[in-house]
Structure formats: C-alpha cells, structure tokens
Amino acid sequence: MILQALHGYYERMSADPDSGIPPYGTSTENISFALVLDGDGNLRGIEDLREQDGGKLRPRKMLVPIAEKKASGIKANFLWDTTNYVLGKDDRGNQGRTEQCHSAFIEHMKAYCDPSDFGLAAVLKFLEHEDKDISGFPNPEEIIGSNVVFRIEGERGFVHDRPAARKAWATCLNQKEQGVLGQCLITGECSKPIARLHPSIKGVRGAQSVGASIVSFNLSAFKSYGKEQSINAPVSQEAAFCYVTALNYLLSPSNRQKITIGDATIVFWAERTSPAEDFLADLFDPSSQSPQPETAVDHQTAIKLHDLLQAIRSGKHAVDIVPDLDESVHFYVLALAPNAARLSIRFWEVDTVGGLLHKIGRHFRDLEIIRQYDNEPEFPPLWLLLRQTATLNKSENISPVLAGGVARAMLTGGQYPQSLLPAVLGRIRAEHAVTYYRAALIKAFFTRNKQLEVPVSLAPARTDRPYLLGRLFAVLEKAQEEAIPGAGATIKDRYLASASANPGQVFHMLLKNAANHTAKLRKDPEKKGMAFHYEVMMQDIISAFSDFPTTMSSEDQGLFMIGYYHQRKDFFTKKSKEN
Q: How far apart are CA 232 and CA 229, in angstroms?
C-alpha cells in the first residue's frame, strides 16, 4: 500500500510540468564543479557550480542520469560522478581503490558513449589521458571528493544533456533492465524487468548520507525459495524508480510536506491536488506560526489557518472555511526513522482529508486550556509542545519514542503515549515551572487516555482533592509573594515537587508559614484586605476535603499541576481586569 501510494504520487507530480520531479532514468544530485573540455579532450578550465547559501557555498541541485546504488561496491555513474571515478583522485588516501573506480568509469563511458558525437568524443579523449592533473587550477583541494560533470568549451549546457548522451543513457538503461522478468507488485504488470536493488532513499534525518532502503534483502535468512535480494518482493525497475523518486522528492529540503519530530521524519501527501497539503504544511512548519507582519500573503494565510483550526476544533467542517476543499480525497502520512542501512516505518496512516482534519481538531480540543500569556499560540505546534518534555527545552533532547507516539496520536486519533505524563511531570519537578504547554499536555493526556473531564480554566466548584491541593498551593505561594515582595525564591521553587507527591509531609509546614505571611499582611493597612481574602480562600479550599494524603499517584500529581496552573492564571487574570 505504501509503495502504491508513492507510485501514484509520482504519476501525479510527473503530469505537472512545473513540479520539477525527475523523469524516469534521472535523479537530482548535488553537483559542485564542471570540467570544461575542448574538442581534443584537453581540460581548459574547472567551473564552480556551487551556489551561495548564507555564508556557505552549497552544491547545485542538478538533473543527471540516475545515480547507481553503490553501497560498498564499485559502480560508475554515467557522465558524472565523484573525482574518484572521473579523475582517479580521492581525498581519503585509498589510491588503490580509487584507481579501480576510475577504470570502471572509463569502461562504462567507452561501452555506451558514441564517439561520433562531438561532446561525447571529447569526454572519451579526456579519459584517455593518463594524468588528469588539476593542481594548476584554483582551489584543487575543494574539488577533490566532490561530484563533477562535463561541459564543452564555448557551448551552453552540459554533456549529459546532449541528445546523443540521452540516447546513450537510454541504451544503458535497456541493458540494465535485462534480467529476471515477473509481475510487478506495485502496478500489477506482467513480464516486467524486476529490480534487483531499489534506488537509495535520501533525506531521512539520522540515516546514512549515501541513502537507505525500505525494501532490502541482503542476508541468506531473508531468502524465500532461493530468490536473491529484492526478487523476493518483485517490483519492476520502473516502478521502483517511481516510488523512490517520489519519496526523495517529498524528503527534499525545499519540500514543505515534511516535518521532523524526534528521530522520525514524517511526509504527507494527497492522492490528488488538495489545499490540505498546504494547510498541513503551514500547520507543521514552525516559521508559519509567526508570520511576518510586512508580508500580506503570510498574514492572510495565518488568519485563514487560524480560522480553519478554530472550525475543526469546534467540530465544524473544514469546507466552511475552505470551500474548494474536497474532504473525500485520500490523504497519506508516512513516518520514517533510521535503522542502519534501512529505514524503519514508525507509522503509516491512510485517511480522507476530512477524517484527518477531524482528528487534528480533536487533538486541539484535548489540548485547549487557558493561555498563560496572550502572545502564546492558541494552537501550539507539535514541536513546541514536545520541547516542553526535553532537558533544557532543546529539540535534540526530545525522546524519539515519545515524539513519534504523540505525533501518531495527533494524526491517527489514538491514545497519547503512557510516557507523556511522567515526562511532563519530570520537567516540572526539574524546572519548578508549570507552563501553558505543559498544562495543555497534561489536560490532553487526561481527556483522551483517562476520559477525565478537565476544564479549560479555573473551576471553583470542582472537588477533586488533587485539584484542590494544587489550588491551595497556588494561594499559599501568592500570599508569600504579597508578604515578601521581591523574594529570590518562593515555595514553588522549593516545595512544588514534594507538595504534589507527598502532601501530608509538606502542607502542614506550608500552612504554618502562610499564617506568618497573612499576619504580616494584616500589619500593612494597604494589604489588610489581602490577608482576609487569602485566609478565606484557604479555608474554603481546605473545607472541601478531610485530610492531606501521604502520597499521590502520577495521575493525581498531574491534576495537582492543573489546579495550580488554573489558580495562578486566575490571580493574574483578576489583577489584569482590576487594572
């Protein structure tokens, strides 16, 4: 199903001349330099093709004959490759293997290049030269080890783009396709040349830079009925090219239909053109959460996205906001993670656009809680939420398993990982901070996993003891802040963790100290009313339960934090209204 959906996406994108997706037999590769030859094959110059990207020079993305899957073997590409193959020079100190690579490149060019073509003849003459010295050209150390192509002096374009070169490459492809014939599992076509090795997939974060595979049979234990390698899962060479090219297209750095969460790289697409692809890209892309005010288009997009999220969170249909949205279109979400030379499939979700948006709306309903500050996003992006579970609030410290589980819950409507609540509580204990994002995650966990109704804002009538204890702690802290303004640390910094885990051991001491704080407030004529107000709040809260429990479970601690957050936010809200 995954390969069929990717194959369908390739067919859809190849029908669009503006998509830029490579046609069959080609691939987009990083090319740094062009060797400029004259008609006799003499090297007349080396053209730097790299492009400026900030303060660095990056290789140019160029359409070339499809790259060979080399792994640890020696296989030459057609009319382009690294300097190991093209010049016989490497930057790794393994000259013996480099000479083998260079010989393989020469033989490959001689086998398919037509010497009657001016450009191909120049390349063949160049390869006949024994010493291909580039030391006389600028910055030879930057050239060694990079990918290079050929260009003829005084002519536009590159040699691999010449009609004769394309014809030679087509002949080469036909030779490669001669092999085992069978029925393709993707297209269903019979008597098609089956791919022994599938092209490499690149762009998955943490995977090997040379690429990895999702279809691979490289050990005898994987054989079935004596079949070698990918013949065990027969896919035609053309279909293998199509699905890998489609996936590489989605994984390319410039494609916005891709997000990285933890160690998982997630790509998404629709079976046919749909505004949902753009909306999901805007939803997941961190840059779209803070649109630049000077860009009118970005501002309008942000407003439309906000209206859409409000609609789906409230259970309305997305077409109410986006009239041209077809909710019946199938939508695909694929999460990949590195696993040595292969890729692991973290999850695969197939749904309609309407079904997917409904699940995302439910996710934001579960998260909905009053914001601590007005500038915090009403619909917090997943990456920002997950950072609240990580040490030092850094993305690289996010647990990959937790990140994948939360992303899957958001996109599939399943339960959040059981490790979510302990992870959030652990960061609260370590940093003594119940933030808007952490409170939202706790609420979502309770709402979906425990079917526990958690209010969006303060609920004075709620009688859950953990919730009341959290409120009481917030009142005690507020009394301390008013009695000792400017104090370097409050009871939150010292006792938040212990008060939530072992209330019976902490609250009696905290209440005794609170009596001193209210007594101090009563001595100040301007704060005398505060003392009475906080004492009444404490009494009202304490009267709703009979005793302080010795210990509380993780779930009770989570509810404690919700109560604390609600009460603290209520103090701030009331003060703002009075001002």
A: 6
- Cα gap 532→529, rounded to integer Å: 5
The Cβ of residue 517 has, within 10 Å, a number of other Cβ atoms equal to 21
Residue 42 and residue 36 in contact, taking contact as beta carbons nearer than 8 Å: no
C-alpha 339/C-alpha 197 separation (Å) is 18
**66 and 199 Cβ atoms separated by less than 8 Å:** yes
Q: Is 72 helix (H, G, I), strand (E, B) or coil?
A: coil
**Three-state secondary-structure class, residue 496:** helix
Give the neighbor-by-neighbor strand order of the sheet with 147-152. 43-48, 33-37, 147-152, 80-82
Amino acid identity for residue 494 in this structure: R
Of the candidates 438, 392, 391, the residue with the CA atom closest to the CA atom of residue 569: 438
pLDDT tens digits, residue range 364-412?
999 999 999 999 999 988 888 999 999 998 888 889 889 889 989 998 8
At 316, list the tokens.
Answer: 């309305």
Contacts made by residues 212-215, CB under 8 angstroms, sequence distance 24+: 212/338, 212/339, 212/340, 212/341, 212/342, 212/343, 213/341, 213/342, 213/343, 214/2, 214/336, 214/342, 214/343, 214/345, 215/3, 215/240
Q: List the alpha helices (DSSP H) in 129-221.
A: 140-143, 163-176
Taking the chain, what is the end-to-end CA distance rounded to the nearest angstrom? 60
Distance from CA of residue 445 to its chain's centroid?
A: 22
Query: In residues, how long is the chain?
Result: 579
d(CA 198, CA 233): 11
CA distances from 227 to 141, 188, 231, 536 (A): 45, 20, 6, 80
pLDDT class of 298 with cuts at 50, 70, 90? low
How far apart (Å, rounded) are the C-alpha atoms in residues 213 and 466? 50
Tell me how far apart the alpha carbons of residues 476 and 474 are, in angstroms, rounded to a whole number: 5
By the 8 A CB rule, do 269 and 250 touch?
yes
What amino acid is encoded at 74 in this protein?
Answer: I
Chain segment 504-552, per-residue pLDDT in tens: 999 999 999 999 999 999 998 888 999 999 999 999 999 999 899 999 9
Q: Calculate the CA dihedral of residues 358, 363, 364, 366 and round it to 10 degrees.
A: 120
Alpha helical stretches, state H, 287-389: 296-313, 353-367, 382-387
Q: How far apart are CA 90 and CA 81, in angstroms?
A: 12
Residue 317 main-chain phi, psi, to 5 deg? -85, 145
What is d(CA 122, CA 152) in angstroms, rounded to the nearest whole number? 8
**What b-and-e string marks burial along 240-261, b requiring 16 or more CB atoms within 10 Å of the CB?**
bbbbbbbbbbbbbeeeebbbeb
Contacts 24+ apart (CB under 8 A), 438-441: 438/388, 438/561, 439/369, 439/372, 439/561, 439/562, 439/565, 440/367, 440/368, 440/369, 440/380, 440/385, 441/367, 441/385, 441/388, 441/389
> Are 196 and 231 within 8 A, CB to CB?
yes
| Residue among 213, 211, 201, 203 at smallest CA distance from 253 | 203
Picking from 125, 88, 122, the residue whose alpha carbon sits closest to that of residue 103 is 88
DSSP 88: S
